[in-house]
Amino acid sequence: MRLDVLDRGHRPAVRLFFGFSRLVSGVPMSDVPKALLYRPEFFGSVFLDLTARTMRGPSSWTAGEREYLARSTSERLRCPFCAATHAELLKIAGDPSPPRPELVAASRFLETLSPPGGVSRTALADALDVSLVFHVVNRLANAFGFALRPGQLESGTRSLHRFGYRFPRFLTGPGAGGPEELRRAVLDAPARTPVALRRAAAAGDAWGSYAATVRSASHRITDEDVARLAREHTEDEVFEVTVAAAVGAALDHFDQGRRNLRT
How many C-beta neighbours within 10 Å does residue 263 have? Predict the structure, then answer.
């Protein structure tokens, strides 16, 4: 990955878990858990709980249909890592192809945010929850340079599905909640960077064009972009500002969708 701390900066319990997982599976840990389990008290703890409930908790959509929405969101945001991962998860969770009309309409809603007829508000709200998760993950995957290594696609997706997107609490901590808790954890809680900087990043107004690019075109972030920032700031600062920009963009999309559903 583009930040060394996301590869090697984890606390001992997490490193032991990664080592044990590699011993059992024969493949190294995927970049997604590496990013989410780095300083989980800042971001990953709340986000992982939200993801598990969204992707495998009660919903208007089957697990396979939620993977369909995850894949279509990843394709729209041009995240090849996530698109490949959720294409594989579709096979495991139950591919809904050909998708029922309500699922096609929900996928279109996540793109346009214009509520369609023929789909309940509850179902569209559940689809927005899926979209929120992957509007964050897609941007982080693109910005941090997530990559699939041999064996990770099959091993990682089987584990995600088997454990319902959950990780042991001794790794994640007690964080729980929904979108508002995610907003508070990333943008308002004490961290290595000032609240004002993280809020600016969430709005796309931090570090020149970097935060705006994470928000609007994360696939354009390059190795050199991140290397330059890491020379000017600590890697923890780059991590927090990138997460804030990704979460800010995801919450803006989510909030607009919820407003459109109400009206």
Answer: 6
Query: What is the Cβ-side half-sphere exposure of residue 98, based on CA atoms within 13 angstroms?
Result: 1
For residue 197, CA distances in Å to 35, 206, 210 come to 21, 7, 13
**Residue with the two structure tokens 């008290």:** 41
Mention every residue, 6+ apart, whose C-beta is less than 8 A from residue 22: 28, 29
CB 214 within 8 A of CB 242: yes
In the predicted model, residues of the chain with pLDDT beneath 70 are none
State how far the Cα of 24 lies from the Cα of 145, in Å rounded to an integer: 26
**pLDDT at res. 189:** 96
Q: How far apart are CA 145 and CA 137, in angstroms?
A: 12
At 95 the pLDDT is 96
Task: Please tell me what DSSP assigns to residue 186.
Answer: I
d(CA 107, CA 29): 30
Tokens of 217: 């075109």
Question: Residue 84's pLDDT is what?
Answer: 96
Q: Are 246 and 214 in contact, with CB atoms under 8 Å apart?
A: yes
Q: Say what the pLDDT of residue 174 is.
A: 82
Instruction: Give residue 137's identity as a one-letter amino acid code.
Output: V
How many residues belong to the chain? 263
How many Å apart are CA 80 and CA 71, to the nearest integer?
10
Rounded to the nearest 10 degrees, what angle do helices 121-144 and 80-93 cross at? 130
- The pLDDT tens digits for 85-114 are 999 999 999 999 999 999 999 999 999 999
